[in-house]
Amino acid sequence: MCGIVGIVNKQNPVQLSELKAMCDRLQLRGPDAEGTWVSDYLGLGHRRLSVIDLETGDQPMITPDGNLILVFNGEIYNFQEIRAELVELNYTFLTNSDTEVILNGYLHYGINELLKKMEGMFAFALFDRKKDELFIARDKFGEKPLYYIENEATLYFASELKALESKFDNKNIDKKGLNFFLSLSYIPAPHTIYSAVKKLQAAHLIQYKKGSKTKILQYYDLQDNIANQPVQYNFKRACEDVRAKLKSSVEKRMVSDVPLGAFLSGGIDSSIVATLMAEISDTPINTFSIGFKEKTYDESERAKLIADKIKANHTVHFLDYKDVVEVLDDIILHYDEPFGDSSALPSYYVAKLAREKVTVVLTGDCADELFGGYEKYLGQHYISKFKKWPKVFQQIVKAAVAITPHTRLTNSILRRAKKVLNNLDKSEFEIHYNLMCLGFSDTERMTLLEKDFQEEIKSEIETVYNSYQSTESLEKGFYTDLHFVLEGDMLAKVDRVCMKNSLEARVPFLDSEIVEMAYRLPVNFKIKGNNKKYILKETFKDVLPSETVNFRKKGFGVPVDLWFRNELKIEIESLLSQELIERQGIFNYKIVKTLLDEHLVGKENHKGKLWNLFVFQKWYLNKIEQA
């Protein structure tokens, strides 16, 4: 795992010192080595975290004839199969690395076919000197990040935004990015918080040729790939396929020349991955968990249950507020732009814990998007049930919900009940969209923001939702979340906290064979009644404890709602003070004050909205006011 940077100077030669300065900003992504290559208008830089081929995998990697130059961040899990094909075709290899496979693969297959063949997580830049052409690509589902800036004079790109911060003087906030953040709690590609910077979307590449207009092309489309694949209606065979493909994916992601382990929350997804790793490994695997001293949020016993069953070398660390406050600002600001998923806090700690013993971890991410694991997928189910109740019962429930205060005992049920009641008259898309918005709804966001900062975001999400060719609203929801939630939130969260600890994270569920198979399964294989991830539970119930299969999903929650009423109360009051809010000119102070007051007295639980504002204010003070 590594970090890459690049400069295309359209008017003047690239300065090596400028390239090195960009590389230095990515030292945590690649602490083991640095490499640069400069030739006239192009410069490529690389920071390396050594995982495979420790002796000969340094970059930039250049073909013996000097024609191709490559900087690569990621892992190609099927590189050995591609390499074997190329050896049969008389291509020569000088290293054992997956990086060299990209170079020879490009020579034989061309850029588009190579990208389609590659199974892995990556962002890379490849320069063909003979054609005078540069390709910058991101993997199919967005595991590895890639930011870029292009203007008339220069094209810059980097694995993280921090390497680009000195490359644009205009720190204008991008209205679309801001609105996405406030509602979704993250900013999906191609948007960022800055109007000058973009993210390269998953499954896309940038094609640059001097003197020509830069092109951004899509090289992989999930719907095209599954269009001619039959739906698997045989449940037993579907279970067999899930098991076989997932075990194969885990095995491919266990290839490493350095120690590896697994994040283990005790939920079904990470438990499946850890169990398969234990089956494959000849020695006990290393597993890592975070617990909370606030017992309402603690799942450490769930993780221990699995760790004991598979006889893992299990390590757990218990967090409380004092641990988190020491690194709170550091973690929030490490994302370089506002990122409102508070589970980044425990994710950072579990990554830090793992890095003490291993360099690579496998995670259970992406199972929710593929197999129907989120609570929001039951929204329509509960709304339909509620509508069947007698009107008098409906009125009683509405009245009770309206007057019940938010406490530790009532928080969970009240939040669920309000989500149902607030979506009773909505369309299937609107229900999904509203439940995607973990921060502010559209209406709330428009009242929060001053007019100059308001921007519509709903249509962009609706376009993706409607683009999926299915009559099933749940399938459209799964596809939408794969596009937005996975890339913008889940994968970004794990990449940054792991890279901050120089740790590589791999995601077995995100193998394209598994993704494509999941989209050829009927919805009722994934969600049966209100039983989420049904096929995963049925497939692995013989190797998982019954308690694990039947646990209610809790997520990697953090008690920020309690902290805002206690330990963080003074700080959030300061960050949302009238003086600062009015100085910024972004938010309506009356709305902000109402949100905070209602939360502090327990009238409402506004933790999602307040956490987004808390994060934004910290980012703003650090990146805008101090810039």
Explain the overall architecture.
The chain is α+β, with helices and mostly antiparallel strands and 627 residues long. It is 46% helix and 15% strand. The strands form three sheets. Strands 2-3-1-9-8-10 form a six-stranded antiparallel β-sheet, with helices on one face. Strands 4-5-6-7-11-12 form a six-stranded antiparallel β-sheet, covered by helices on one side. A five-stranded parallel β-sheet has the order 15-14-13-16-17, sandwiched between helices.
Distance separating the two termini: 30 Å
Biggest β-sheet description? 6 strands, antiparallel
- Strand order, sheet with most strands: 2-3-1-9-8-10
How much β-strand is present in the residues?
Answer: 5-15%
Spatial shape? globular
How many beta strands in the DSSP annotation? Answer: 17
Tally the helices: 28
The overall average pLDDT, rounded, is: 92
Gyration radius (Cα, Å) is 24 Å
- SS content category: alpha+beta
Extract low-pLDDT stretches: none
Relevant terms:
17 strands; 46% helix; alpha+beta; 627 residues; six-stranded antiparallel beta sheet; 28 helices
Task: Outline the fold blueprint.
Blueprint: E1 2-9, H1 16-24, E2 33-39, E3 42-48, E4 61-62, E5 68-76, H2 79-88, H3 98-109, H4 111-117, E6 120-128, E7 133-138, E8 147-150, E9 154-158, H5 175-184, E10 198-199, E11 204-209, E12 215-218, H6 222-226, H7 235-252, E13 260-263, H8 268-280, E14 286-292, H9 300-310, E15 313-319, H10 321-334, H11 344-355, E16 360-362, H12 367-371, H13 379-387, H14 391-403, H15 411-421, H16 428-436, H17 442-448, H18 458-467, H19 473-500, E17 504-506, H20 512-518, H21 523-526, H22 534-540, H23 546-550, H24 560-565, H25 569-575, H26 578-584, H27 589-600, H28 607-625
Parallel strand pairs: 13-14, 13-16, 14-15, 16-17
Antiparallel strand pairs: 1-3, 1-9, 2-3, 4-5, 5-6, 6-7, 7-11, 8-9, 8-10, 11-12
Helix pairs in contact: 2-3, 3-4, 7-8, 7-20, 7-22, 8-9, 10-11, 11-19, 16-19, 18-19
